[in-house]
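User: Structure tokens for both sequences below?

Assistant:
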Amino acid sequence: MVKPHGQERYQQNQTYDFDVFLLTLHIIYLCLSYQESFLPNLLGVIMSVVTSSLSGDQEKKLLSLFGHVRLSLLYKASVQGYTAAAFHARCNSQGPTVVAAYNKAGFLFGAYTSKDYTQNGQPINDDKAFLYSINDERKNPLRVSSANGQYGFTDENTGPNFGALVFLFNDTATVQYNAGNSYNFDAAHMHGDDLQLTECEVYRVEDLGGCLTKPWRNMQWTSERKRQLKEKIKNYKPDVKSVSQARVLLVGPVGAGKSSFFNSVNSIFRGNMTSQAICGSAGTSLTTQFRTFNIKSGKSGEPIPLILCDTMGLEEASGAGLDMEDIVNIYKGHVQDRYQFNPMTPLSEDVPGYRKHVSLKDQIHCVVYVVDACRVSLMSAKIVEKFATIRKKTNQIGIPQLMLMTKVDEACPLVSEELQNVYTSHYIQRKIQELSASLGIPVSGILPVKNYSQELELNQNTDILLLSALDQMLNYADSFFENQPEQEEL
């Protein structure tokens, strides 16, 4: 039986509340120090800590109304506003969604629809739609289908309008109750006759689909396989004599897990948890330098023949995050280790940190894009556009490209329960197919991984996924070397 992932998230949210308090104090200080010029970045930081109000028990009961699904928070009224416009801006065209409304009487109640909100002004038939109510006094949730078995909701410019219940009524923290309209229920049982809201949230309901009967990609989960992969990587030799180590560049949005990937791989070869690369969560990139990381086999061992290069994260705003010209300079080997990025001014020849004379060993031999599995469906058009621009330039230069899909355990409860389910999970398979379609990377070039984040001990299955990803990077680097002319100096 799958452990409800909401219980773990509820425990984490208690910590987040204190973190938000500290963050608020920090924001006030920054506002006083930097005034208006810093506000756009502050907004990004604030939004990064928006969390669910569902308790572990509430989420467990809510999930019991569905099959095997995952809830993804789209809208939180206390943060984004108790208005229909704020609701539609975040919830239109998101597929199946569920409204979660809270009141002082202790009720969690709301409505589910399997259809999109589009504001077309029409009644929407949805035989899967229902209203529900949860409170501590009832063991099981109350579930109410429409009176005629077909009506779902009215798709207007208002808040969610399910006839009998209209949420965010008149752009306020209230619900309008229309007795006997479309859904029949006892008001006291549904919401305790309390229509004033303390919070209103909307979640996308993502069908996880259970497990496939057989893995869609073969993987050996044995200690012998882990040993083989480690030895193969340590003994790797590039085909070009002048190059002793393959250089792999990690590129991805802020918080995708680039730095965590290096720390995780480094931990495997060191034999204990390490944290050499700066990682964490913030509204903007924590990595501000170009870093080239060697990975040693053991505490005092020799470096393995692979260098992982870390960069600033990609950001939506123009003039923020990694610049395209800097990426090209990195590809060609012109950027020295520890160069401090300036998002407003790309590196040029007359700037310290620019390497004028480069050879093949200084260049990037494989590019690896890093994407958070929990954010696949939430990537903005601007981030997708930036990926497309980078892909086009990378193709022109002729560098092989792979993609890591991180945090697969957070995205799918089945994988969280057992990492070996990663290649039998319907949900993970769909997310990889979605990534392939939106970013243009072949499915064969997308590798699901789990980084070490809160563990204190190494795990064999985690190691095998990470080592398999490294093995593929070296295979792709070989393709780069095979395409090089005999003349290596540039």
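Moving on to the next sequence.
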Amino acid sequence: MSYFPRQWENSTISLRQPFIGRYKWYSIPNSRKKYYQLTMKGKLLLATILCLMGVQALGEDILEGNYNVTAVCTAVKVGTQLGSIESCQTYYVCKSTGPEKASCQTGYSYDYQRSSCYPSSEVSCYWGVENPCGGKNATWVPNTAVCGGWFYCLDGESAGSGKCPSNQKFDATTAGCTYGSCATTDSTDGVVLDDLCDVVPPSLYFGDTSDCTTWHYCESTSTGIVLRTGKCDNIYNALTGQCAYSSTGACSRVTGIPLSDGATVSCATNGDKTPDATVCGKYYVCTNKVNVATYCETGYYFDVKTFTCRTRQLAVPVEGCNRCQYATTMFVNAVNSDNCSTYYYCNKEGQATLNTCPDDTFFNESAQGCAPDENLETYVENNGACYGATASDSESTTPSTE
């Protein structure tokens, strides 16, 4: 292990940078067999069990910084315990009605990896701790208020602080920087969740709120805990932790609300780029087998034809992404390569409501209304959201100003 000395400002202490590590690619033990069993068992589930997802009544979302506790609870089995990023003493029990907060007794801290409370001296936890360097010497600990942040500890006190390089995050297990995605915006309440595997117990399969077929798994490796991901042939049932046939209500957790702004996902080929399903100006670059979130400059979207960032109007973004991002008008095109007839109403928070133009018209963003199909071909040339769109067969050209 090598270190990079750096002279701390206004101090005679030589501040060491944390070791910058690289993830090695590890396959999940017996992964092929485990996945096969998951799929086959899921096909035998009773329809009554599958329908349980549809009757869960969740209250208001519980948020801790960029960590949506309620969303994560919908993606795990009922009874699963999740860590908190506000206090080492508290944790959440996922009930059918949502997360329920619980606390350890005085002098104890919650160990999310073992799903139980232990004497604080036996638990490596830094959430809400006044002095994270307490009892530490010549090592690094996470700065939980900064994305990828760290403190260097000497004799139980902080001798300085810093941040991991771009496209890396701090791993408390290895006390160093590792490749991975990290939330790009500061939390409003002083806590930042770098990785879902910092609150979800390892060796636990859980689902996703953006896609019903996706499952995740926190795997313990020699370089830290890594979030793996995969897909079922049909759906992933979060209540049973298994792949299953599609059924009414089984995918009610798919709300589009992200589990966290900083979740990392494994990938196969370094250099591959994939668009974000909901944010037009965001994409992922496969770096050392981990998908790293990357953002286009303000006013630019990720273009799925060229795999580069292009100006908002010219870019061909992924279907379903929210084109209210960077919009300067109230109504904008939705991504529609069929007939360009769908559009969004953007509220002041940038949230989108989908609408559709009448037959034989398309939505013209610059005109802020539905226009006759006869002008669609010219419009498509300069508006990537409608790439490939053609006019309908009907001869009606009645304009609309909706």
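User: Anything stand out in the second?

Assistant: The helical segments are 31-42, 47-50, 69-74, 376-381.
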